[in-house]
Design goal:
Helix 1 crosses helix 3. The strands form 4 sheets. Strands 22-21-23-24-20-25-26-27-28 form a 9-stranded mixed beta sheet, with helices on both faces. Strands 8-7-10-11-1-2-12 form a 7-stranded mixed beta sheet, with no helix packed on it. It has 581 residues and is an alpha/beta fold. A hairpin with a 2-residue loop joins strand 26 and strand 27. The protein is elongated, with a radius of gyration of 32 Å. 35% of the residues are buried.
Length: 581
């Protein structure tokens, strides 16, 4: 039975398409009767059947669904010519040709009357690109051609639709899922894939499927990266100015540069592309991510730390956070140059590490705790045996006598987990001079305090807290998480005897990171831990560019162990505690 489809692109053109068959399919690939090359359209999205005078619409298990009058289809549904069918960015009305005037096609110059375009199942047609008008409408004004513009990057943009189409054709031409990767080899695989992609892009160019202003070389590289690499992330992993990459959803990617977040142009073509990248990250590590295990921590070959979480926990789609590994080892001079602390503060911390004070660095997420821990660990004398323990290895120590341990999550069967606490206990049997724990998050805090109290002076760790005083409360809470039912007084005694100094690291609104306080735990007063600030950062406002303005000042308090060092004849510089020195 013949019927017509009136197709309108949201905010765009309208077409009328006539069919001489009983059913058609609508989707993103060429084999459909109506081909809509958009990223939010599935390969086979919707079927329309017209039989015995009835119009039936059926969703073909599409990713984004088919809607009738705003309601998502749950099964086959009979519709009328007045019903609106929503597929991605398109609105459809289905009607027999004789039910109304419909939308007339554009008449070409010199034509008496252009025939209506006829669609058949064997001849797919791209739609949504021509404008049509009704009889009696004034002719459209002749406008100057628009200036060239860069393609829009994103799932709803033309570039993403083109990227998805090229990627789908690559999968069909070179079935990467069935390719024997071990036999083929990495280099040969990349060469074979690149050759195939270039053929696909050339063919698309010849058939007029590519925007004339689109960068063909960029498209080739993006398709290869999405098929074999880490997709658009490859660009920002290679960018030395980027310190962190955040994928909020397939269409929304942010990076951090110089402490400031910014949204970038490049994005993924689909949620499946993000999942493919995640699989390439975790598979070599023997881990997996799926609905039964929807979050994972991993590490890239260059040492960058990766956290991923996928639906159903992440509602917008797969989410990835990458903390890039810094290849260059920062020093205290670098931190001074960044304005994170002063030469006097660096000199004081150097002395603290060398005379084996136990230090805790506290701060918020992304405040620079690990960077400062790495710098302070570099002060440890080279002849001492150092054991570092981390959840994800990030520390880079220059010393030769250094053992690096990393925790291990459970395997697919839920077995084989090795926690930070397990490693701290094991480190005590390795005859360490210093134990450095990347971050205390739970019950390992008790083991760390006991190590500091039993001959492992000069140990260092970090934890999350907003101030030096909050850091002590956080330590108490973590000790309670160990399962040992200790009274608060006993826990505070442990902290007072084990921890000598707390260093507060803060990330400000302008993206800068600074050591805002260095405090000594001076003991117990009744049941309360007493602290004295030695250095502090006093913020005085912001400059015209929004940068934080302030100054580092010594409070005048001299830590107790400095007096002990003087009595033992160890030379110390008392000028570091004078502001005008």
């Amino acid at each position: 039975m013949p019927f017509s489809v009136i197709l309108t692109e949201k905010g765009g053109a309208t077409q009328r398409l006539d069919f001489e068959c009983e059913e058609i399919t609508i989707g993103r690939v060429d084999e459909n009767d109506i081909c809509l090359p958009k990223g939010n359209i599935s390969k086979k999205h919707t079927k329309i059947v017209v039989k015995d005078g009835k119009i039936i619409v059926l969703d073909l298990k599409s990713t984004n669904g088919t809607y009738v009058n705003g309601k998502k289809l749950a099964g086959p549904q009979v519709i009328s010519p007045d019903d609106k069918v929503f597929i991605g960015d398109f609105i459809l009305n289905v009607e027999p040709p004789d039910l109304g005037p419909g939308v007339e096609p554009v008449l070409q110059d010199g034509d008496e009357a252009a025939e209506q375009p006829t669609m058949t199942p064997s001849r797919p047609r791209y739609v949504g690109t021509e404008a049509t008008r009704r009889d009696g409408d004034p002719p459209p004004p002749v406008a100057a051609p628009p200036p060239p513009k860069a393609p829009v990057i994103g799932l709803a943009g033309d570039y993403a639709a083109t990227l998805q189409l090229a990627h789908d054709r690559l999968i069909e031409a070179l079935d990467l899922r069935r390719l024997d990767l071990e036999r083929l080899g990495s280099d040969e695989l990349w060469k074979k894939t690149e050759s195939t992609v270039r053929q696909i892009v050339t063919r698309m160019d010849q058939t007029g499927e590519l925007d004339p202003h689109l960068d063909r070389e960029e498209l080739v590289q993006d398709v290869i990266n999405e098929a074999l690499g880490l997709g658009p992330l490859e660009t920002y992993l290679a960018d030395e100015t980027v310190s962190e990459i955040m994928v909020n959803s397939p269409t929304q990617v942010y990076v951090e540069r110089a402490g400031r977040l910014e949204r970038v142009e490049k994005a993924f073509s689909s949620p499946q592309a993000v999942l493919g990248v995640l699989e390439r990250i975790v598979a070599p590590l023997g881990r997996h991510i799926d609905e039964s295990s929807p979050l994972v921590d991993a590490r890239l070959p260059d040492g960058s730390r990766v956290n991923a979480i996928i639906p159903p926990l992440a509602l917008k789609g797969p989410c990835i956070t990458i903390r890039k590994f810094k290849r260059e080892l920062l020093t205290s001079d670098d931190l001074i140059g960044f304005g994170a602390l002063t030469p006097k503060m660096a000199q004081f911390l150097d002395t603290c590490v060398k005379v084996r004070r136990n230090l805790v660095i506290s701060g918020g997420t992304g405040s620079g705790k690990t960077t400062l821990l790495n710098v302070l660990s570099g002060y440890i004398p080279a002849q001492e045996r150092i054991v570092t323990i981390e959840d994800a290895a990030e520390l880079q120590l220059p010393q030769e006598h250094w053992i690096q341990l990393e925790a291990r999550p459970a395997n697919i069967e839920g077995k084989g987990q090795i926690t930070i606490r397990d490693l701290v206990r094991n480190a005590l049997r390795m005859r360490p001079d210093r134990i450095v724990v990347g971050e205390c998050r739970g019950g390992e805090a008790l083991d760390m305090l006991q190590a500091m109290n039993t001959g492992h002076d000069g140990s260092l760790t970090t934890l999350h807290a907003n101030s030096t005083r909050d850091a002590l409360a956080r330590l108490e809470t973590m000790v309670l998480m160990s399962g040992m039912e200790l009274p608060i007084r006993a826990i505070r005694d442990q902290i007072a005897n084990a921890v000598h100094l707390v260093i507060q690291q803060t990330r400000f609104a302008d993206g800068s990171r600074k050591v805002t306080a260095i405090s000594e735990i001076s003991g117990m007063e009744m049941d309360v831990l007493s602290m004295q600030d030695i250095f502090e950062f006093r913020q005085e406002g912001f400059d015209d560019q929004g940068a934080v303005v302030g100054r580092f000042v010594p409070t005048g308090f001299v830590p107790r162990f400095y007096d002990d060092l003087q009595r033992r004849g160890i030379p110390v510089d008392m000028d570091v505690f004078r502001e005008d020195a």
